[in-house]
Amino acid sequence: MNIVKQLLSIKSGFGGAKNHSRASIFSLFHSSAATPVEVHSPEQEVVIALGSNVGDRLSNFNEALKLMNNLGIHITRHGCLYETAPAYVTDQPRFLNSAVRAVTKLAPHELLGALKKIERDLGRTAGIRYGPRPIDLDILFYGKYRVHSEILTVPHEKIWERPFVMAPLIDLLGSDVDNDTVVCWHSLAANSDGLFKLWENLGGESLMGKEELIRVLPIGKSFLNWAERTYVMGILNLTPDSFSDGGKFQSVEAAVSQVRSMISEGTDIVDIGAQSTRPMASRISPQEELDRLIPVLEAVVKMPEMEGKFISVDTFYAEVASEAVRKGAHFVNDVSAGQLDPSMYKVVADLEVPYIAMHMRGNPCTMQNNENLQYGDVCKEAASELYSQVRDAELSGVPAWRIIIDPGIGFAKRTEHDLDILTGLPTIRTEIAKRSLALSHAPMLIGPSRKKFLGEICTRRDAIERDPATIASVTAGVLGGANIVRVHNVKDNVDAVRLCDAMLKRRRSIA
């Protein structure tokens, strides 16, 4: 059965649509410039493509998203972010491309007018067709309708030939169909098998990582191609009570020395935490956390060795995240995925930095309670719960292209659960992909380092004796699809990661 037949059979289960034929899924709207036909309904779901290759491309995107919301185009989903080679006119800078789903009460030509106003406000002027531009906003889909006039064609007529448009468009979907408007988008495709088949025919995921189409994570003014290699995050705990190294790096001098050592051993990211999240850890206030964190952060930021490296702040407090980013941190690493501070999502959205969202039930004092350890299938349930949290973050203004997912090894998990997650990372992505392909493509971080489950399996009571088991778990995770590994022992894990990356590269070269 092809995708459209599958979608049409699914459509029959939607309220109000069960007795309609395929032809009635959408309507055709034709108009002339003098007598435009507009669609009038309370609200329509739309897809808008974004492109930029002039000026600060990411800033152009961020400003365009804000202006859309101000003009009544309320964004609900974001595609991934792509750096792409220019098409048609090739002698120009590389583009950033993405797409968003949104809901609006604006009629099609009103929507077009709003988008053109945003383009003008961001400095776009008349120029050569397909030439350089600070922002380009195109309507790909408008509700269930086909629109045609002298100034507007929907679906956009060149969707089907452009990988840089199709990739973020596909990101906005799930492998499961979430509503009958999406059914219609598939039926409007220039291929009877729907959007997924069109994407596959263009090359699909095989196009990723090539010069023409690179999926990237924005960090400050740079763009990280996380699929190119695995990144190592070195742990710096400024706490007196962390399970592995509590009390060792509380002074600024000791902390700076440890960072210098991690950098010499090859770390890419320094993750600084000033609040312990071990089981049963006592919670400290945001101010106490800041008192521990800020002197060290300020010193680390000034280190010449930090050139080309990144800093992550490990906190579940929005206030701490905000101040840390203001002082120079590049990431926010939240073990609660926004569950322990209701302000976190909005603050991270405003900070415009990558957000690491980790799966955990309860809080550090309750996460290992019996009720939080009940799973039927830990990979599927952790994926579902984490998806719900990152969707809330996205609806609060954190684009999917800035989200990093962490399945939370050791947090509200028994030993068997941690093992299932280490071997089930592809399952986690597949489960998330059912509802959002963009979020399923997000970089994945794992943090098995020196965790209790390694001690239980290897009979190593002291955390520092678990480094060999950590290396084994990191190896399993990277080969299973992890993109970032969070570790205490940087040197040995850097070697493990390099070997895994070489193995994966070799596998791809002979596939």
Automatic annotation (TrEMBL):
<keyword id="KW-0808">Transferase</keyword>
<comment type="pathway">
    <text>Cofactor biosynthesis; tetrahydrofolate biosynthesis; 7,8-dihydrofolate from 2-amino-4-hydroxy-6-hydroxymethyl-7,8-dihydropteridine diphosphate and 4-aminobenzoate: step 1/2.</text>
</comment>
<dbReference type="GO" id="GO:0046872">
    <property type="term" value="F:metal ion binding"/>
</dbReference>
<dbReference type="Pfam" id="PF00809">
    <property type="entry name" value="Pterin_bind"/>
</dbReference>
<protein>
    <recommendedName>
        <fullName>Pterin-binding domain-containing protein</fullName>
    </recommendedName>
</protein>
<keyword id="KW-0479">Metal-binding</keyword>
<dbReference type="InterPro" id="IPR000489">
    <property type="entry name" value="Pterin-binding_dom"/>
</dbReference>
<dbReference type="Pfam" id="PF01288">
    <property type="entry name" value="HPPK"/>
</dbReference>
<comment type="similarity">
    <text>In the N-terminal section; belongs to the HPPK family.</text>
</comment>
<dbReference type="InterPro" id="IPR045031">
    <property type="entry name" value="DHP_synth-like"/>
</dbReference>
<dbReference type="GO" id="GO:0005737">
    <property type="term" value="C:cytoplasm"/>
</dbReference>
<keyword id="KW-0511">Multifunctional enzyme</keyword>
<dbReference type="GO" id="GO:0046656">
    <property type="term" value="P:folic acid biosynthetic process"/>
</dbReference>
<dbReference type="InterPro" id="IPR035907">
    <property type="entry name" value="Hppk_sf"/>
</dbReference>
<dbReference type="GO" id="GO:0046654">
    <property type="term" value="P:tetrahydrofolate biosynthetic process"/>
</dbReference>
<dbReference type="GO" id="GO:0016301">
    <property type="term" value="F:kinase activity"/>
</dbReference>
<comment type="similarity">
    <text>In the C-terminal section; belongs to the DHPS family.</text>
</comment>
<keyword id="KW-0547">Nucleotide-binding</keyword>
<keyword id="KW-0067">ATP-binding</keyword>
<keyword id="KW-0289">Folate biosynthesis</keyword>
<dbReference type="GO" id="GO:0004156">
    <property type="term" value="F:dihydropteroate synthase activity"/>
</dbReference>
<dbReference type="InterPro" id="IPR000550">
    <property type="entry name" value="Hppk"/>
</dbReference>
<dbReference type="GO" id="GO:0005524">
    <property type="term" value="F:ATP binding"/>
</dbReference>
<comment type="pathway">
    <text>Cofactor biosynthesis; tetrahydrofolate biosynthesis; 2-amino-4-hydroxy-6-hydroxymethyl-7,8-dihydropteridine diphosphate from 7,8-dihydroneopterin triphosphate: step 4/4.</text>
</comment>
<feature type="domain" description="Pterin-binding">
    <location>
        <begin position="230"/>
        <end position="498"/>
    </location>
</feature>
<dbReference type="InterPro" id="IPR011005">
    <property type="entry name" value="Dihydropteroate_synth-like_sf"/>
</dbReference>
<keyword id="KW-0460">Magnesium</keyword>
<keyword id="KW-0418">Kinase</keyword>
<dbReference type="InterPro" id="IPR006390">
    <property type="entry name" value="DHP_synth_dom"/>
</dbReference>
<dbReference type="GO" id="GO:0003848">
    <property type="term" value="F:2-amino-4-hydroxy-6-hydroxymethyldihydropteridine diphosphokinase activity"/>
</dbReference>
